[in-house]
Design a protein that fits this description.
Length: 251
Amino acid sequence: MSLADHLREFRKRLLIAAAALVVGMIVSFILTDSIILAMTEPIRVVAEERGEVGEVTLMFATVTSAFDLRIRISFAVGLLISAPVWLWQIWAFLMPGLTRKEVKYTFGFVASAVPLFFAGAFFGWLILPHLVELMAGFTPVGASNFYDAKYYYDFVFKLLLVVGVSFVTPVFLVALNLAGVMTGKEIMKGWRVAIVIATVFAGAATPAADIVSMLVLAVILTVLFFAAAGLSMLFDRRRRKRDAELLGPSA
């Protein structure tokens, strides 16, 4: 294909992806009431536990902040809803330029990373209520909790994003191994550092008083690391076996 053909193809894929995103945003905008209700459930729990209904609530500080929050939620959720379409558009644009081996690796990477990310985001969603309740416990007697809608949304979104990405990290380790950057043994040598990082991250992402959630998250991240290291060592073994078979007849 000529450069002009590539540009036309890129424009076509971009328009389809943008249209899917718009449709996803419209659908998610309709569902924002349910999303906000679920997202603010921890705030209502804190209010009921403290007997301060009306004094622990989500606050919209400006005239347009309620609308802004809905747009931000619509974009984030719409991006997730439309992910199958825009991911396929990216894949369809890049696939003709990839070798069969590269196509296989890329497909394996996406197929592994996407469910792991959603699993991590779901775990972050489970942690959210405990984290909000713990932080509210530091509010002094006589004071009230008014959570600014924008900052509360950013807090929830970043929590889900960070925990989701942490679950995908082992996939990047396997990708580095397949690219020949790191061997499985080199990855395995860092197991002590990996356990420390997993524990520190779990401690930072979960409430200090919620030891069970911290341990569960730390164990999950550690198991994913060892799975990535073991899979990389298996790939290395197959690679060495294949190279030996190729060199065998010539030797």
